[in-house]
Amino acid sequence: MDHWDEIRMFLAVAEGGTVRAAADMLAVNHATIIRGIGRLEEKLSTKLFDKLPSGYKLTDAGADIVELAGQMSSASAQIEAKIFGRDQSISGPLRLTLPVSFATDLLMPTLADFSAAYPNIALEIIGSGSVVNLSNREADVALRVVIGNGAPPDNLYGTRLGGFHTGYYVRRDLLEVRSKPVAWLLGANEAVPSDWQPAGGITTTATPIRFAEMRSQYEAARAGMGISILPCFLGDADPLLARVPGGPVARAGDIWLLTHADTRRTKRVRLLCDQIHAAMRGFAPRLAGQVDGGGAELA
């Protein structure tokens, strides 16, 4: 089949459900996706999708070939990974994915140093909490928090960098003026703590405020909206925030640096992993909630 680009577009629409989702996935515009699907349907002389108000639905013919298209995609990614794994140059593209807070509030100086040291490496930083498929080359290196006592997938090469701790934080001036109850600021799946209550005369409202992602939750705490559970490295370093009296510091999981077995020996992958590994060793006290933003030891 000489229409691999069109098959990739077909598979992206099948997985994403809409042309826009497919365009975002492949970093092209939606008109390119529509034209590509049209060329593939013309080549195969069959209709692959029904266009519905809710998006694109596979026809029977489309459903018949989607698994084969996925196999082609996996094979293509494996070929790319094998070739990429032999690359010992210090130039070319390199994709790193990591949570937004790790990028913006912890590792950006490290990544800036890396970019300055290796200007011919085209570093792409993907700030996201979503799990990417390293096997399909959606990224080359991933920094991830694995919750609880879990472990990364067996098909990935992982290095455990240490524990990840969280605590409860509130805007500092709310500890001084307790004129009214404050709200719990929670993520989508977080529950109001049942095993402890704030000390120091702080009272809380019965109704929590929820957020779809952590950055908004953090900014809400900084704005004085209420009490939020945050990574210790983030909350302790912010002069506007203070730990809630009586609030626990808890290990939420482990931080892992992940690569694919076929690409981990690529020189620029190793260089980036070594630099991140060294930086994270230095950040261990902050990640454990043992120091504040000024470097002072916390009780």
Would you kindly provide a written description of the structure presented here, covering whatever features stand out?
It is built from nine helices and eleven strands. The strands form two sheets. Strands 3, 4, 5, 6, 7, 8, 9, 10 and 11 form a nine-stranded mixed beta sheet that branches. Helix content is 38%, strand content 24%. It has helices spanning 4-16, 19-26, 30-44, 60-85, 100-117, 214-222, 232-235, 267-282, 284-287, and strands spanning 49-52, 55-58, 92-98, 121-127, 141-147, 156-171, 183-187, 209-211, 226-231, 241-243, 250-260. By secondary structure, the chain is of the alpha/beta class. The mean pLDDT is 83. β3 (92-98), α5 (100-117) and β4 form a beta-alpha-beta unit. The radius of gyration is 23 Å and the shape is globular. α1 (4-16) crosses α2, α1 (4-16) crosses α3 (30-44) and α1 (4-16) packs across α4. The N and C termini lie far apart (64 Å). The longest helix is centred in the N-terminal third of the chain and has 26 residues, at 60-85.
